[in-house]
Amino acid sequence: MKAKTINKVLSKKLSDWLSNIDDISLIKKIEDDAIITGGSIASMLLNEDVNDYDVYFKTEETALAVAKYYVSKFNDANRDSKASIKHEEGRIKIHIQSNGVATEDGGEDILETSFDDAVEALSQADDCPVPVIEEKPKYRVVFLSSNAITLSNDIQIVIRFYGEPSEIHKNYDFAHCTNYWTKSGGVILNQDALEALLTKELVYMGSKYPLCSIIRTRKFIKRGYQINAGQYLKMCFQLNDLDLNNIEVLEDQLVGVDSAYFMMLINGIKKKTENDPSFKVSTPYIVSIIDKIF
Fold first, then answer.
1. What predicted TM-score, i.e. pTM, was given to this entire model?
2. Cα–Cα distances in Å, from 16 out to 21, 67, 100, 107, 137?
3. Distance, CA of 108 to CA of 100 (rounded, Å)
């Protein structure tokens, strides 16, 4: 797909999304500050289907306003939800009770069950009767995590990072995802991203989330990308700087990666720690839980 076609597609997508927001001042903020980047532009350049559109914002003010708007909408639509915003030290974070994720169909409930019950429920999900499909609003919140808000109709709002594209991409892992689009500037392509796309090569640039990046390689490999051992070594060196025995570090690294399963792991560790304050995370314990969940 050519850049001018991508411009049209993304302009139409933004307009459609904004037409479903009932706060006029927020619409203006999003128009001025929204940045679409990540895998969607890479997919369009390769004429592949787009999974979702990752949206970031140039300013903390807009990121916070958007987070507050959609958390409020989610709580209104899900009366049992207690999602809230934590804003401190330049970090915007969504807090969902003790589980870390919430879905519009009550997904947080499954994370409070035992591992055996939760795994059984997930494994049988495909066997459930097909429900009557009710017409639901476009661009409603379907999933919340501490770092992101997922809307229906393929919009994912990332609140973990904000700033100009160059700042946001400092936190990106793979080069091919660093093209971006804004309403005022259109599609901006960069040479490193295009080279990685043409060769379908995963080039690791460094990330705050190396564990997430290692796991994400599975997705790209399935799509035909290649990765050399050196890129894995980069990720391993960064991972070595982290203390994954610290539950807060481990949770932060795993948010957004197969969340339902990994949040069961995190929730299990938290409950174990609550019941036994002397408990320390260990490799054998993690291995035993992973073997049960996956």
1. 0.81
2. 10, 19, 29, 27, 12
3. 8
